[in-house]
TrEMBL record:
Organism the protein comes from: Pedobacter hartonius
EC number of the protein: 4.3.1.7
Protein name (database record): Ethanolamine ammonia-lyase small subunit
Taxonomic lineage of the native organism: Bacteria, Pseudomonadati, Bacteroidota, Sphingobacteriia, Sphingobacteriales
Cell compartments where the protein resides: Bacterial microcompartment
Sorted UniProt keywords: Bacterial microcompartment, Cobalamin, Cobalt, Lyase
Length: 251
């Protein structure tokens, strides 16, 4: 008679409904269940796919048209995905044609919003439109003058400094696909920088992370970003000198 492996349950089983993290997997003998092992490998594959995903340009342009803002497309100096991953420095600087595009659209703007593929174009494809549907009305009602939306490829966070500075904007706000994790391949990070200029580093920015339906909901994220934008203009700074004193904002 063949013995069937028995899955031994975990005392944390009741907590699984509160998190997507891999807890209470159970065990079969000295190992985890086969189903959990396969799920781990699948999640790892999804994360790798997200890194190599591409912006769905046509769908994004269609969705962004509803916001009635001019839109320009910008590329970094990274010519392809492999170069982008191997040379992070190239993802921080616009290519020559993009610099000219920025110069042609420059004016006195308050905010430049940049949409960037980052390490997960999938995150932008899935979540940037619903996030903007909540965020843009807040910025417009507050009277901020918005620069043309920028759709960027092969982009790192610091590319936003060049873009906003080139457009003449006082504040850069980049919505970028974050590095995928094993439970989150669709997360957006929102980074804002007051008085952006080439050469700034991460201590000059504020970040709202894990923006996605199963992370920080769009409404809560938009309120948090809007609060930080208002504080940045009020205090004329961003980064380590700008603290989030608003507390938790529910979605």
């Amino acid at each position: 008679m063949k013995n069937t492996p028995v899955k031994i349950s975990d005392s944390w089983e009741s907590l699984k409904e509160f998190t997507a993290a891999r807890i209470a997997l159970g065990r079969v003998g000295d190992s985890i269940p086969l189903s959990e092992s396969l799920a781990f490998k699948l999640a790892h594959a999804h994360a790798r796919d997200a890194v190599y995903s591409e912006l769905n340009r046509e769908a994004l342009l269609t969705g962004l048209a509803d916001f009635h803002l001019p839109l320009i497309e910008i590329r970094s100096k990274a010519e392809n995905r492999n170069q982008y991953l191997q040379r992070p420095d190239l993802g921080r600087t616009p290519d020559e044609s993009s610099l000219k595009t920025l110069k042609d659209h420059a004016s006195a703007f308050d905010i430049s919003i940049i949409l960037a593929d980052g390490l997960s174009a999938h995150a932008i494809n899935s979540n940037v439109i619903p996030l903007l549907k909540v965020l843009l009305p807040l910025l417009r009602e507050a009277g901020y003058k918005l620069a043309p939306l920028c759709l960027t490829q092969q982009a790192r966070v610091a590319l936003s400094d060049h873009i906003a500075n080139g457009l003449g904007a006082t504040l850069a706000l980049i919505l970028i696909g974050e590095r995928p994790g094993l439970t989150a391949a669709d997360s957006i990070g929102a980074y804002l920088t007051y008085q952006p200029r080439p050469g700034l580093t991460d201590e000059s920015r504020n970040c709202v992370s894990n923006i996605r339906p199963r992370g920080l909901p769009f409404e809560a994220a938009a309120k948090k970003v809007f609060y930080l934008v208002q504080e940045a203009f009020k205090r004329k700074l961003s980064g380590t000198g700008l603290k989030d004193n608003a507390g938790f904002l529910g979605g």
